[in-house]
Amino acid sequence: MTHAPHVVAVLGRGVLHPDEPVVTADDLGLTRGDGCFDSTRILTEEGGTPHVVDLEGHLDRLERSARAMDIACPPQQAWRRLVADALAVWSTPGEAVLKLVLTRGREWRPTGPTAYVSITHRADTGITGHQRPRTITAVTLTRGHPSDAFRDAPWLLGGVKTLSYVVNVAAQREARRRGADDVIFTTTDGYALDGPTSGLLVARDGWLLSTPTGDTGILESVTVGDIFESARADGWLTRFVLVPVADLYTSDGLWLVSSGRGPVLVTALDGRPLAVDEELASRVHGYAGF
Amino acid sequence: MTHAPHVVAVLGRGVLHPDEPVVTADDLGLTRGDGCFDSTRILTEEGGTPHVVDLEGHLDRLERSARAMDIACPPQQAWRRLVADALAVWSTPGEAVLKLVLTRGREWRPTGPTAYVSITHRADTGITGHQRPRTITAVTLTRGHPSDAFRDAPWLLGGVKTLSYVVNVAAQREARRRGADDVIFTTTDGYALDGPTSGLLVARDGWLLSTPTGDTGILESVTVGDIFESARADGWLTRFVLVPVADLYTSDGLWLVSSGRGPVLVTALDGRPLAVDEELASRVHGYAGF
Questions:
Q1: Is A251 in contact with A276 (CB distance < 8 Å)?
Q2: N or C: which end of chain B has fewer CB within 10 A?
Q3: How far apart are CA B158 and CA B141, in angstroms?
Q4: Is pLDDT of B1 > 50?
Q5: Chain B residues closer than 8 Å to A34 by CB
Q6: Other C-beta atoms lying within 10 Å of the C-beta of residue B96
Q7: Which H or E element spans position B78?
Q8: Confidence of residue A3 (pLDDT cuts 50, 70, 90)
Q9: Where are the domains of chain B?
Q10: Which pTM value belongs to this model?
Q11: For A153, which residue in chain B has the nearest alpha carbon?
């Protein structure tokens, strides 16, 4: 087995060297950001077999994204075989990110959708994730739309994990420019949305809260769903509800949550220190299965 | 010389077969839509040399897009050489589209930005463009944000021709679903913006109007600028001003305008027939140099 830091496998072509190009100049995923993706964690113990966390859930979400975009998603069995091909040459111990990418395919030839998977080692984490940074600072940045912008407007592709992510990465650059690590997007009517690559979790007065999907256009967070389920079993009240931006500063705990790094505690927002409850943070980490 | 319907040339690699892949699995242009592009027309007479329309203006706009995104744009001379390489194998008579594409480059290796050009024949046009469809029908669709959404929010990348175009193509699919050809985007506060791949031009009471750039986030239209300049010389008053959606239905003439197809007259909007003034349409066509 090789110990490659990156693996790429393309549907119909198999495993490629990571330096080998995978899409043509006219692929609509490249020229229009016209495609979707999903990603999850791979855990590999020293000398062990890699384990993909909740592949099922992420394949389901990828299928929903593709359906919303009218892209014919390859069957789950084809994705599973492609993932297995990639895993067969993966044995780097620690955590890695599995990415599933689907584009509408080529503009000049009717070749059908382009599908590939990639595996990338997370150099910042150890086998058990203890090196993972568990706290960050964030800034609020407007997303430029009201909280109901996506109502009855399916062409805006709310809730769809598309490849058109440029505003998300530009917002993260703006955060670094302001000396912070990440972003919480806000609406023009004063509510919190989510992060550029993460969901929002707020602890407040015995409740765990997160932003509703639907009219807000935010992505469903698989990990927020997992946290809510475990938290309710542990006695918490949970609710998807719009949280006013002003309430973020006075919350009992604030997290950005993703499949890749789990719940990450926000310790300062727009330069203002937030409540940091280590015991609460540890429980929320456990709810997420991290 | 070959008579290929498509030509691709990649900076650092030269002319490639159009079926040959150009970007890797980790290219941020592909995985995040993190890049920019520009496009213009190529005119080639039978047996003649191809002529690129206003390469200068489009290279300038590409540079502005790259600057707004913090991507190091290759010097114009490099782009010109790349375009020349592509043109050297292009001789298909008629109209073609030249596309200039720039991405932030690879995530896994510091290889710098990816830059390529492509040429695509416009099969729907003849040498002088007379086969070009000069009228279309359109629908209005909300863009989900107010008309000042981009004020003081550079991370939203207003005015930047990024590769994250998925909402634009989804809106065009929605138009076809409604039996129309194209889209005029609208704001939540009731103004017209532009089309998914075109600028807006409105004739009204002796004025030619178009949507202002800046706070609206719309792209500057090189062709609207050309039209305004020629129209003023011909006695028109011109103005960049927000046009209420309601005024579109009662305009003296309504066009969607792009470098690829020039000004295209909209004959019906949301199923309601619009004023069609053939003489006016012909003059506007002339102003655009089409």
A1: no
A2: N
A3: 18
A4: no
A5: 165-166, 169
A6: 27
A7: helix B76-87
A8: very low
A9: 6-121, 135-287
A10: 0.94
A11: B142
